[in-house]
Give the backbone structure.
Amino acid sequence: MVNFKHALSGLMLGTFMSAGVAAQDKADVSVDIDRLTSAVSQKAIAWRHDFHEHPELSNREFRTAKVIADHLTDLGFDQVVTGVAHTGVVGVLKGEHDGPVVALRSDMDALPVTEQTGLPFASKVMADYNGKQVGVMHACGHDAHMSVLMGVAEVLSGMRDQINGSVVFIFQPAEEGPPRGETGGAKLMVEEGVLTKYGEVSAIFGLHVWPGPPGQISYRARGAMAAADSLRITVKGEQTHGSSPWLGVDPITIAGQITSAIQTIPSRSLDITKAPSVISIGSIHGGVRGNIIPDEVTLEGTIRTFDPDVREALLARLNKTVTDIATAGGATAEVETFLAAPLTYNDPALTAQMMPSVVKAIGAQNVVEGPLIMASEDFSEFQAKVPGLFLFLGINKADQGSVKPAPNHSPFFYVNDDALTSGIKTLSTLAVDYLNAQRD
């Protein structure tokens, strides 16, 4: 579990504060943001509980989208567009003064996880997931992300006279990945023109709830979350009776050798001082009964990297290792990979420019520099087109102490409602300060 314990250094804090002091002197909107955030905070908690109790899987966020669209419409947004990338919602809020366009993003989908938190608003929803009936839960905090961004929408709609430009609110479906055989997520939103159709977006901001002190914001310039490649290995042998393995070619044994061997690629074949990487196998399928050696075994997994050169070297070594082991055992093997999410990369110039706004919003004592995170995020698809900054919001229990918090994707995952206020203040301040700075 990530522990955001690396405090923001005095030197870096001084750099951030000096870089942002001019903008703050010209347009310090903190008082209005604080006032409007206080007014909407209880609504945000109610929205989160409602989303949490009624989660929907990727590309199926129909009820969720309606709640969001109705809210933006009630606020008098200049545009509210539904059905974006299947079920996404885009809202456009124009300030009273002309200026650039900035985007704020939240994801919407829940996970195929059966909740075990015991909360009064715990999910009891069941749904079809790739042909199976599964429990559905907001086990990654997207309910919090939506509630924060809906709160920001209410805050900024109440201070249009202080906004120089436009804010595009992006509520994105299928961050966890579309169902088998479908398209979706940030990639599809970008393809449909979400960063250009409503004005040329010049920067995008987002955040993700993560285990850490409640209300604390963690940041990291440059690479923050890993690139993710999906991995599928098919080993083909020759079926035979389990009593006579020498009469065939056993793909199960070979698959076991492959699983063990590829784990050593990051630690033995790559320069681990350059950037970390991980290969994990999460699924193995082959055979139908104990006394029949099958003719085929399929392994599925994930690859995580932080450096393009390391990724290229890893993939090359992976292919050679798998092929050589299969050949040595008399089998054949096919390796399939595809990039599921690029590296989440926080533009260093944008990060340096905007961190004073984060400090202003929630206080320097609540801002820390975080570690690399091996998880991935398709927010990176937006960052591949425009400069972006992705932050992490701590959501532990106030009395967490030394008890290990449940990680994201756990059936026990917990979000401290009090942390939503920090998220609303942070994203609101980032949007207004960015637009005002661009005007200046």
